[in-house]
Amino acid sequence: MTEPGGRSPIGVFDSGLGGLTVVRALLHDLPHEDLIYLGDTARVPYGTKSREAIVRFAEEGSSFLLGKGIKLLVLACNTMSATALPELASTMGVPVVGVIDPGVEEAIRVSVGGRIGVIGTSATINSQAYRRSIQTRRPEWLVFSQACPLFVPLVEEGWEESEVAVMTARQYLAPVVAQGIDTLVLGCTHYPLLIPTLRRAVGTALRIVDSATQTSREVRDLLARLALENPGPASPMRCYLTDIPPSFIGVADRFLGRPVTHVERVSLPS
Amino acid sequence: MTEPGGRSPIGVFDSGLGGLTVVRALLHDLPHEDLIYLGDTARVPYGTKSREAIVRFAEEGSSFLLGKGIKLLVLACNTMSATALPELASTMGVPVVGVIDPGVEEAIRVSVGGRIGVIGTSATINSQAYRRSIQTRRPEWLVFSQACPLFVPLVEEGWEESEVAVMTARQYLAPVVAQGIDTLVLGCTHYPLLIPTLRRAVGTALRIVDSATQTSREVRDLLARLALENPGPASPMRCYLTDIPPSFIGVADRFLGRPVTHVERVSLPS
Fold first, then answer.
1. Bridge-based pairing state of the strands A96-97 and A35-39
2. How many Cβ atoms sit within 10 Å of the Cβ of residue B137?
3. Residue range B120-175, pLDDT digits in tens
4. Do residues B206 and B113 make contact, with C-beta atoms less than 8 angstroms apart?
5. Is A60 on the interface with B (CB under 8 A)?
6. Phi-psi domain of B225 (left: phi exceeds 0; alpha: psi -120 through 50; beta: other)
7. Mean pLDDT, residues B219-246 taken together
8. Does the beta carbon of B157 lie under 8 angstroms from any beta carbon of chain A?
9. Cα(first)–Cα(last) distance of chain A, in Å?
10. Ordered alpha helix ranges (H), chain B
11. Kind of pairing, strands A238-241 and A263-265?
12. Same domain membership, residue B162 and residue B110
């Protein structure tokens, strides 16, 4: 296999389609880069599964993308970033960027009081990855976490701005809001679509941080530092999915903000 | 492999843990039978995935159970029964019982007006399997269907009797109730846990049909007809799962009404 270079693509790996919110930011910030997306839609969601299963799935998907000659891997999934990033980073042979540290950097930049709420899937919250990442940088800050397993299905159903979503958000967030948090970190790539609902549930005073923009900036800086930028022009993104469910088109378009073309079904392990 | 006989176990296959509501009925009606349960918890849910993926998963799981020497296979999952039953029934070499026809038989027994509502996963509703099964038996009856993708996550979160669940049920069911249905078929093994909430959402006049009890009676009758009954005594059920998530114990106990013992993790395809 040829050594990856500047003209090689960036691999973006997610458990399903939520990672397309990160792709959206990458397409905006890095228009000259080639992107390859892998969504493990046959096994989605990861967030309710065991750490052991998530690590295995993450290794299988990463190997698939490595086989496509990527120069950098983005784990565009908080669940994988929280549970499998250290293992992958040490074995992949290309730089691996997760979505947790970028979100944490942004939270640290905007928080005025050092009281941070974090919401995500059960696996992400149980991993304590956000708490560790925040408290490594700011040991005196307080972190209040809440798993919100119903948010992903609500978004995938297209109910993200419904009364049901607002009531669900109020129920999940009441305990962390009661702790006087000043900043809320969206620890799941589906959650940016819930921002209007979260505003209705928790008011407008809270700062809400999502990691897509910050992750894309970290990728840009890293490519510059490693002199791995693509002079362009970029080819259209190739999208590999382990299943193409009937709901794919609608959900994908909402996450990406434009149609997904060049879709191919693949099996993992490949 | 020895030919399966009366002392061989019954295999029960579900995409996850919902099929344990069917196991509950089987344990009640067939206390002398040995049961082997397979839950594909690494890839659950099936109901939002493509027909092609569901058929492949169903074949892989059924082969696994066949390898354990089962005498009869219960597809304790509406999504699989709706999409994969005909293929499996013709290739398995042992009788295959799904959950759809038993539910339909029961609906036909209790309906007073021949206007039937059916709720289930997207894959089950899209398959039109309930409509076909009802209209084959009663061509003049009317069937009104509604996919309810949020019901499974609500039950798995333990929110099945919450205000959020009631509001969700009202939203999903309003269109079918407006059609003047007299009977509502629960086309998903998770939904029996929602019956109190469905009653609050649609009132007490509707007849609500779930297929677990009727499926278990069909298995009993079939074993008697084929002279494949187990004289007993039964061994404890063996439970094979493709993933053992942290939430397993709580969810399994609620579905089964007693603790699940003898659990083993396996890989599919095996």
1. unpaired
2. 13
3. 999 999 999 999 999 999 999 999 999 999 999 999 999 999 999 999 999 999 99
4. no
5. no
6. alpha
7. 96
8. yes
9. 17
10. 20-29, 51-66, 78-91, 100-110, 122-127, 129-137, 151-156, 163-177, 195-202, 212-225, 248-256
11. parallel
12. yes
**Cis, peptide link before residue B4, omega less than 30° from 0:** no
Nearest chain B alpha carbon to A43: B43
List, for residues A33-58, the tens digit of each pLDDT value: 999 999 999 999 999 999 999 999 99
Instruction: Tell me: do B16 and B149 sit in the same domain.
Output: no
- Which residue type occupies A29? D
pLDDT class for A250, splitting at 50, 70, 90? confident
For residue B240, how many other CB atoms are within 10 A of its CB?
Answer: 23
- The pLDDT of residue B270: 55
Q: Tell whether B66 lies on the interface with A, counting CB pairs under 8 A.
A: no
List alpha helices for A116-191, DSSP H: 122-127, 129-137, 151-156, 163-177
Asked if residue A230 and residue A203 are part of one domain, the reply reads no
pLDDT band with cut points at 50, 70 and 90 for residue A261: confident
User: Under an 8 A CB cutoff, do A164 and B154 touch?
Assistant: no
- Whether residues A87 and A218 share a domain: the answer is yes
Segments forming the whole domain that contains residue B139:
100-210
* DSSP bridge pairs for A36: A11, A238
Number of compact structural domains in chain A: 2
Say if residue A132 is in the same domain as residue A226.
no
Q: The domain that contains A254 carries what CATH number?
A: 3.40.50.1860
CB within 8 A of B76, min separation 6: which ones? B12, B13, B14, B18, B19, B21, B22, B23, B99, B189, B215
- 112-141 of A, contacting B, C-beta below 8 A: 122, 126
Is position B4 within any domain?
no
